[in-house]
Write a structure and sequence with these properties.
The protein is an alpha+beta fold. It has helices spanning about 1-90, 95-115, 125-140, 160-180, 220-230; strands at about 145-150, 185-195, 195-205, 235-240, 245-250. Strand 1 (about 145-150), helix 4 (about 160-180) and strand 2 (about 185-195) form a beta-alpha-beta unit.
C-alpha cells in the first residue's frame, strides 16, 4: 500500500516536472523567435532609413550640380561671350585677354565641381573616360604629342565622388607638371585595371627632375601627397631618363 502510494507520488512529480520543462521550452522557443523577428525587422527598418538617407543625399547632390550648371555656369558663359565680343570688335586689350583667360579657368573648375557632385558619375567607367577626355584637353594648345591608353572593357563598379575627385586631381597635377616643366616632346597616360584597384602610369621623354631638389613647399605636390594618403595609394617616380610616374590606387 505504501509502495503504491509512493510510486504514484513519484510519477506525479515526474509528470509535473515534465510539464514545467515543456512550458519552459515553449517559452524559450517563443523568446528566440521573438528576438529573431525583432532583430530582422529592426535591420529591415534600419536599411530602409539608410536607403532613404542615401537617396536624399543623392537628390541634394543632383540639385547642387544642376544649380551650379544652370545658374553659375550660365553666368560665366555670358561673361565669356561678352569678353569675346569686345575682342572681336577691335577693342582688344591685355586686360580683356586676361579676363577671358580667367573666365576659362573658372569655367573649367565649375565643370569639374559639377562632374564630382553629380551622383550619376559615381562609377569606374565614367572616371576613366573623364580622365581620358580631360587630359586630352590639356594638350589642345600644346606642341607636345600625347597618347592615352585605357582598358577596352571596364567593369561596373561604384566609386564615391570623393575618390573620383582625388584620383582625377592627382592625374591632372602630374600631367600638368609634365607639360609645364618636363620639356618633353611626348607624354603618355596609361590606365590599367588591377584586381585590387587602378594602376595609372604617366610617362614623358623630357629632362626629368631631381626629387631631392624639388621644392618641399610645392603646394601641388603637397596636395597630391595628401590625396594619395586619403586613397591609401602609392606613387613611384623614376626620373633618370625622362620621367615615369606610377600610381597604384586601391578601389574597394
Amino acid at each position: 500500500m505504501t509502495y503504491k502510494l509512493l510510486n504514484g507520488l513519484f510519477s506525479l512529480d515526474i509528470l509535473t516536472i515534465f510539464k514545467q520543462l515543456q512550458c519552459s521550452g515553449a517559452f524559450l522557443l517563443l523568446f528566440i523567435v521573438y528576438a529573431f523577428l525583432s532583430h530582422y525587422f529592426y535591420k529591415k527598418r534600419l536599411h530602409r532609413l539608410l536607403d532613404q538617407q542615401q537617396q536624399a543625399l543623392k537628390n541634394e547632390r543632383q540639385r547642387i550640380s544642376s544649380e551650379i550648371h544652370d545658374d553659375i555656369g550660365a553666368g560665366f558663359f555670358a561673361i565669356k561671350l561678352f569678353a569675346d565680343l569686345v575682342s572681336k570688335n577691335g577693342r582688344r586689350s591685355d586686360e580683356i585677354t586676361q579676363l577671358s583667360s580667367m573666365i576659362n579657368d573658372l569655367s573649367e573648375k565649375i565643370k569639374e565641381i559639377i562632374w564630382s557632385t553629380n551622383y550619376e558619375n559615381d562609377n569606374l567607367e565614367n572616371l576613366i573616360y573623364y580622365l581620358e577626355f580631360q587630359t586630352i584637353k590639356l594638350f589642345e594648345h600644346s606642341q607636345t604629342s600625347f597618347r592615352v591608353h585605357i582598358p577596352d572593357q571596364i567593369p561596373e563598379k561604384v566609386i564615391s565622388s570623393e575618390v573620383r575627385k582625388n584620383i582625377y586631381l592627382i592625374v591632372k597635377e602630374f600631367v600638368h607638371n609634365a607639360i609645364k616643366h618636363g620639356q618633353a616632346a611626348h607624354i603618355a597616360l596609361e590606365i590599367e585595371l588591377l584586381a585590387e584597384g587602378l594602376k595609372i602610369v604617366i610617362m614623358d621623354d623630357g629632362t626629368g627632375f631631381d626629387q631631392n631638389l624639388t621644392k618641399k613647399n610645392s603646394m601641388g605636390l603637397k596636395n597630391v601627397k595628401a590625396r594619395l594618403e586619403k586613397l591609401d595609394g602609392t606613387v613611384l617616380i623614376d626620373s633618370v631618363i625622362g620621367t615615369r610616374i606610377t600610381l597604384t590606387i586601391p578601389i574597394s
